[in-house]
Amino acid sequence: MSCAGAAAARSLWRLRAGTLRPLPAYGRRISVRFYSSGMTLDNINWAAVDRIIRVDHAGEYGANRIYAGQMAVLGRTSVGPVIQKMWDQEKDHLKKFNELMVAFRVRPTILMPFWNVVGFALGAGTALLGKEGAMACTVAVEESIAHHYNNQIRTLMEEDPEKYEELLQVIRKFRDEELEHHDIGLEHDAQLAPAYAVLKSVIQAGCRVAIYLSERF
């Protein structure tokens, strides 16, 4: 091993949750210690954690791009501060998953450049329908993400809730904030958007495809 490689192997990565032991480079199962809580994750299901972190990172990245598109169109309107507040929370979500990607050595989805463009286009396109269109998009996306997070919570709870306690805390917190965004969208006339039911259904179908692809690729 080169000197650079040895130095990299000895490096310690830091999470908001605490400092982690370096992870083994190979194998389907890994061990991690969260020193902040004293909890040790021994022999975690690497395949499941890898899939969860990759797709959640992609989802939060896409959400950031959607809000960026909405702000590009509606940022100077009366609803701009509302969108900005939700976007700021999504930035925090993305930051956390960026940290988890590094800590668990999870590769990002290869579709990131695509989600970059599609997310912004979806946000800007629905915002061009007016405040109601932007909020309809928010309701559709956040409902889909919350449902997806609930599925992940069930998966981890069925496997070992104590072992995945801190990851569950992250997912639950973000799920609750996505539901807050969903409710904000409804409070700001999402259902008055043109062809609301159709628009919501189309966006949520796209979300399901995005989740499926980002988990696998």
From TrEMBL:
It is a peripheral membrane protein. It comes from Lynx canadensis. GO terms for molecular function: 3-demethoxyubiquinol 3-hydroxylase activity; metal ion binding; oxidoreductase activity, acting on paired donors, with incorporation or reduction of molecular oxygen, NAD(P)H as one donor, and incorporation of one atom of oxygen. Its cofactor is Fe cation. Fe cation 1 binds at residues 60, 90, 93, 178. CDD domains: DMQH (cd01042). The gene is COQ7. It is found in: Mitochondrion inner membrane. Belongs to the COQ7 family. This is 5-demethoxyubiquinone hydroxylase, mitochondrial. Its main location: mitochondrion. The keyword Disulfide bond does not apply. Fe cation 2 binds at residues 90, 142, 178, 181. GO terms for cellular component: extrinsic component of mitochondrial inner membrane; nucleus. Pathway: Cofactor biosynthesis; ubiquinone biosynthesis. Binds 2 iron ions per subunit. Its EC number is 1.14.99.60. InterPro entries: Ferritin-like_SF, Ubq_synth_Coq7. Component of a multi-subunit COQ enzyme complex, composed of at least COQ3, COQ4, COQ5, COQ6, COQ7 and COQ9. Interacts with ADCK4 and COQ6. Interacts with COQ9. Keywords: Iron, Membrane, Metal-binding, Mitochondrion, Mitochondrion inner membrane, Monooxygenase, Oxidoreductase, Ubiquinone biosynthesis.
